[in-house]
Design goal:
heterodimer; A: about 475 residues; alpha/beta; Amidase signature (AS) enzymes; eleven-stranded mixed sheet; B: about 475 residues; alpha+beta; Arc Repressor Mutant, subunit A; 3 domains; eight-stranded mixed sheet; three-stranded antiparallel sheet; 16 helices; about 40% helix; elongated
């Protein structure tokens, strides 16, 4: 059962084939068995998970058949969870226990999910490999010498290795979609503003968006149904009705216009990844879709723009970690300045400090116009490219990442690492919904395909992803090392 | 050389909203430390700001009251700096697109003339908490009750030319804010704070001199003293052949001097950028109009009306309308007594003196408007003389019974009986033959002496007009 999708598990729960307690115990057993190898979880909540599962079973016995009732899931350790440590992958918050639940945590609890624990991540979501985590990198279940991607690496690993049925993640520049691609699962980032950011620890406020890591697009739709919606506690959340994202999953794709950005099939893309994507496109043509090359002329600027805006916002967002009220504080500070300096030097890792420095510089007097203001202007151009493109096509498809998962420790130059998100970053800058689904393998490692929709076209993106998964079995491919126990 | 002083004021007003600017926490003054700080105010990871619409309404209301342009779109920015009582490590403020743009207000100068003072802008921002440096065994304490309370920062143009104008401006601002009921505006409690930018230049010069910013001025009186001190200091600096340094200076009220703060403070780079957690505030004309409808009659308009409708002189009208409660008190006394002139005289005279002496607000006056109106009514119907009325007024402070009872009890009812007055007058004539003689010889001034004697004889109770009349008749 642990390898099944949320939709399938729910059917089994409703049929009485298994209880949520049994299921939860099965996942907990696997976490105990494999987490040392995979480092997917930072915190495991055995007792509370079992008691939540028990409650879910009781509700079901009373006739409640809510879609996520009793489903064991994992939260990225960036979401505040009342009474449970929320570390954000950092020494700074290693012992921080939030006194409140993030809105999505609360919503998922209300839907009846079971929280198995909190998953590993790049520190403050800053990274594309999980290697910046204070708790060490999560490992890719397809090859534990390789990274799972990041920053939601722990969530991707947990779903791919069947340590949970589904997981939450956040995506600022590709942090859900890239690890989903590397781990061979489905990673969905809704439009900016679709899901509340309250209780989600901020990295770059204008880019951060919560989403899900799941086995299928259908599961992503089930998660989005619960997570999406206006939240008065988040001023940037959108007052727009939430659709039933499962309703249109099977809509025909006959006549669907798919845009292929020529910039995403250019230099830097591995030929095997390209081949897998091209083959997937043939599936869509078989479903009646029309493929059309499009131009995103400013796309090449997106990484540069992102690495001005995101660090700038981060430099302010991370100022609150000063050792005064909570979190890490250095030993025996001599005075206030010493406390600030040592607390932040010791509490933050290298990559976080690098980005704080970059962001502080970009906002400094004399540099603001050249960096921050200019980046905002280009951000608008990048958005306009998409606006123009969506006048001609319904979705945009390309690779999620230029290559498959790379080896741990192999990328030491920060800029090389930043280029990991070259296909995903523009989508965050434009605030659009995007999904990565597995469409093949290259040398035994999963290849992810990226489907991008127009503003708030979540339903369309999920529909396009779902029909592919109805035609193919790539989403059923499993890393053999962590197969189901007999 | 003759110098000209140029002053601009930055005034912070704490908006009296039920909750803070971006969180639902209450913001009462004087609560136990850290009892008015929720997870947002503590800047816990993951929290987000939500604008308090009441604060926005207050800001717009102020803007409309000074005829300022109201921005249909305004933007919050982050002002970054580290300080223990600033929990987020940045203050949410408004830099390039404040809610309230250019406006102006009128001040009254001592010579009776008026002067228009420009207001550059007014913007919303959150207040910081307080650092407490005592009683913590070598550590500092942080109280975050004030952190996040809404402030309106009102920036004037450098239109003020001396300390007295600065005080007049600040008082007018204070008056308008109280009329609008958007802040307690109590300087001693910090709900109204004033920083003064001061520079001097040779008279006739157009270029502005180098300015200093004076902080920590917490009363109207200190505004005047601090500016005067600073002007004097700058003149001395220049006359000594040195230059004024652009810096922030702290006013020390005990020593009556300004002192330089660390120059580092001035070199701060706040790295402002638009607050990504808040969308731009977009308001429409209907919103602005709905707030305009709630505007009360403001001091200038009320003053003009009092002059026109009640025939008050400029000075009395100014004093009375300076305070909204005072103006209401006056209107109430006038309505009940039917005599605006007497009402104004009593209020600006004896009543004001009483309030000043006890440091009372008009709303705390032991003599309520209806009682002062009764007193005035008794003067008008000749029950008591004006002079006796002052004694009754004194009695009314302690005695809350009716004015008539107090008059009765004190036996101070005016004597208007002709027979009694005639007897008094006869007695005075008999007792003062010399003066009577002088009057008859044409020395008119003596009459007032004789009237005085009669009043004295009656212990003030005789109606002076009647006494006067009888004396004139008898001495013909």
């Amino acid at each position: 059962m642990i390898e099944k999708t949320v939709a399938e598990i729910t059917a089994a729960l409703n049929a009485g084939d298994i209880s949520s307690v049994e299921l939860t115990q099965a996942y907990l057993d696997r976490i105990i068995r494999f987490n040392d190898d995979l480092n997917a979880f930072i915190t495991v909540c055995t007792d509370s998970a079992l008691s939540q599962a028990k409650k879910a079973d009781e509700k079901r016995a009373k006739g409640d058949t809510s879609p996520l009732l009793g489903i064991p899931l994992a939260h990225k350790d960036i979401f505040c969870t009342n009474g449970v440590t929320t570390s954000c992958g950092s020494r700074m918050l290693q012992n921080f226990v939030a006194p409140y639940d993030a809105t999505i945590v609360e919503k998922l609890y209300q839907a009846g999910v079971v929280m198995l624990g909190k998953t590993n991540m790049d520190e403050f979501a800053m990274g594309s490999s999980n290697e910046t985590s204070y708790f060490g990198p999560a490992k890719n279940p397809w090859d534990t010498a390789r990274v799972p991607g990041g920053s939601s690496g722990g969530s991707a690993v947990a779903v791919a290795a069947d340590l949970c049925a589904v997981a939450t993640g956040t995506d600022t520049g590709g942090s859900i979609r890239q690890p989903a691609a590397f781990c061979g699962i489905t990673g969905f980032k809704p439009s900016y503003g679709r899901v509340s950011r309250w209780g989600m620890i901020a990295f770059a406020s204008s880019l951060d968006q919560a989403g899900s890591l799941s086995k299928t697009a259908e599961d992503a739709a089930l998660m989005t149904n619960v997570m999406a919606g206006l939240d008065r506690k988040d001023s940037t959340s959108i007052d727009k009705p939430v659709e039933d994202y499962t309703a249109s999953l099977s809509n025909s794709l006959d006549g669907l216009k798919i845009g292929i950005p020529k910039q995403h099939f250019a230099e830097g893309l591995s030929s095997e990844v390209e081949q897998a994507i091209r083959e997937a496109l043939v599936e869509y043509e078989n479903l009646g879709a029309i493929i059309k090359e499009i131009d995103l002329p400013n796309n090449h600027l997106s990484v540069s723009v992102y690495y001005v805006i995101a660090p700038a916002e981060a430099s302010a967002n991370l100022s609150r970690y000063d050792g005064v009220r909570y979190g890490y504080r250095c030993e025996d500070p001599a005075d206030l300045e010493d406390m600030y300096k040592r607390t932040r030097s010791e509490g933050f890792g290298e990559e976080v400090k690098r980005r704080i420095m970059v962001g502080t510089y970009a906002l400094s007097a004399g540099f603001y116009d050249a960096y921050y203001r200019k980046a905002q202007k280009i951000r608008r151009l990048i958005k306009n490219d998409f606006v123009d493109a969506f006048k001609e096509v319904d979705v945009i498809i390309g690779p999620t990442s230029p290559h498959t998962a790379f080896e741990i420790g192999s990328k030491t130059d920060p800029v090389t690492m930043y280029l990991e998100d070259i296909y995903t970053i523009a989508v965050n800058l434009a605030g659009l919904p995007g999904i990565s689904i597995p469409v093949g393998t290259a040398e035994g490692l999963p290849v992810g395909m990226h489907i991008v929709g127009n503003d708030f076209a979540e339903a369309k993106v999920l529909n396009v992803a779902h029909l592919f998964q109805q035609q193919t079995d790539w989403h059923r491919f499993k890393p053999t090392a962590f197969e189901k126990e007999s | 050389m003759e110098w000209e002083t140029v002053i601009g004021l930055e005034v912070h007003v704490q908006l009296s909203t039920k909750s803070k600017l971006f969180s639902g926490t209450a913001s009462q003054f004087g609560a136990e430390p850290n009892t008015q700080a929720n997870i947002y105010d503590l800047a816990l990871p993951g929290v987000l700001p939500v604008l308090n619409e009441e604060a926005l309404k207050h800001a717009v209301k102020f803007g409309l009251a000074i005829n300022a342009s109201i921005s249909k779109t305004s933007v919050f920015d982050r002002k970054n700096y580290f300080y223990p009582d600033l929990p987020k490590g940045y203050q949410i403020s408004q830099l390039d697109f404040p809610t309230v743009g250019k406006g102006s207000l009128m001040i009254n100068l001592e010579d009776g003339s008026e002067k228009v003072i420009g207001v550059t802008r007014a913007h919303m921002e959150e207040d910081a908490g307080k650092s407490l440096h005592e009683d913590f065994h070598g550590m500092s304490g942080i109280d975050l009750n004030r952190a996040g309370t809404p402030l309106l920062e009102i920036v004037s143009e450098p239109d003020l030319r001396n300390a007295k104008e600065a005080v007049a401006y600040l008082k007018k601002l204070h008056s308008i804010i109280l009329y609008l009921d958007i802040s307690d505006a109590i300087m001693a409690q910090g709900s109204m704070r004033c920083d003064a930018n001061v520079s001097i230049r040779p008279k006739g010069e157009i270029e502005l001199g180098t300015r200093t910013e004076i902080k920590n001025i917490n009363s109207f009186r200190f505004v005047e003293k601090a500016i005067n001190y600073e002007v004097q200091r700058q003149q001395e600096v220049i006359q000594d052949g040195s230059r004024v340094v652009q810096e922030t200076r702290l006013y020390d009220a005990e020593l009556n001097e300004t002192r330089s703060m660390r120059s580092k403070e001035v070199a701060n780079d706040y790295r402002y950028f638009p607050e990504p957690d808040l969308l731009p505030i977009v308001i429409d004309q209907a919103f602005i109009d709905s707030i305009r409808e709630t505007l009360p009659e403001l001091p200038d308009a009320k003053k003009a009306r009092f002059v026109k409708e009640f025939g008050l002189n400029d000075y009395d009208a100014s004093v009375i309308t300076n305070n909204r409660d005072m103006a209401e008190y006056f209107e109430s006394v006038t309505r009940d007594s039917g005599d605006a002139k007497l009402a104004a005289n009593w209020i600006t005279g004896d009543l004001q003196a009483l309030l000043n002496k006890n440091n009372w607000e008009i709303t705390e006056s032991p003599i309520q408007a209806y009682r002062l109106a009764q007193l005035i009514a008794r003067i008008k119907d000749n029950t008591i003389s004006g002079k006796i009325a002052k004694r009754i007024f004194e009695g009314m402070i302690e005695d809350s019974s009716s004015v008539d009872d107090i008059i009765e009890e004190a036996g101070l009812k005016q004597v208007t009986d002709s027979g009694e007055i005639e007897k008094l007058v006869d007695e005075v004539i008999d007792n003062n033959p010399d003066q009577v003689q002088q009057f008859r010889e044409g020395k008119q001034q003596v009459l007032s002496y004789l009237v005085g004697q009669a009043m004295k004889l009656s212990r003030g109770k005789a109606n002076p007009n009647q006494v006067n009349q009888f004396l004139r008749n008898k001495l013909k």
